[in-house]
Amino acid sequence: ADQVDVQFPNAVVDVHKTVQQVVADFRMIHPDFTFTLDDDLEKTTFVRMYRNHLEQVMIILMDNAVKYSTNRKEIHVSMAQSSGNGVALAVQDFGEGIAEKDRRRVFNRFYRVDKARSREKGGNGLGLSIAQQLIESYHGQIEVDSALGHGSIFRIDLPTITEAKAKALKAQEEAKQAAAPKSDTT
Ligand code: ATP
């Protein structure tokens, strides 16, 4: 029998749906921005993780992209098949960018590049460390590419599962729910 562990729960997320939803939310919340969604995925793509975890990571990246976009109010989101068995997601902005010396440290807890300036923008310097912990706990990777003054691109790579595996996990989860005593969780 399949064992349940924290890293790989019997939860399956449809990457398409989730990313589209988050982008739609941001279009609504930030009507002054242009959000493009470049979808190169050939088929429905599933990752074995909690949906709210993928949502949270996308929200952190997109919220930063908005916060640190100084001149051009444009954000590019993309999804594509990655080399091997994975999905590659990217959030790109054309804002202030991150200097090379700061690039690795932005994932550290409480690290903020410009303490005084970023204080005005709010935040604690926790977002990216949370995003990194979540992604790595699902055996994925997150990295940043940036050019100071020109913008940044955050890339995520997550291992995917086949549609058959996704269906099997969903069925298993539904059977478990049906067998469990009724609770008021929805
Ligand atoms: P919060 O805890 O609300 O997310 P935060 O944005 O300061 O606050 P992180 O998301 O962890 O925290 O980001 C850490 C730092 O990395 C930021 O303070 C900022 O200096 C830099 N940073 C993050 N994203 C970008 C981006 N898209 N462009 C430029 N700098 C960024």
From TrEMBL:
Signal peptide: none annotated. The lineage of its organism: Bacteria, Bacillati, Bacillota, Bacilli, Lactobacillales. Residues 1-162 form the Histidine kinase domain. It is found in: Membrane. This is Signal transduction histidine-protein kinase ArlS. It comes from Lacticaseibacillus zeae subsp. silagei.
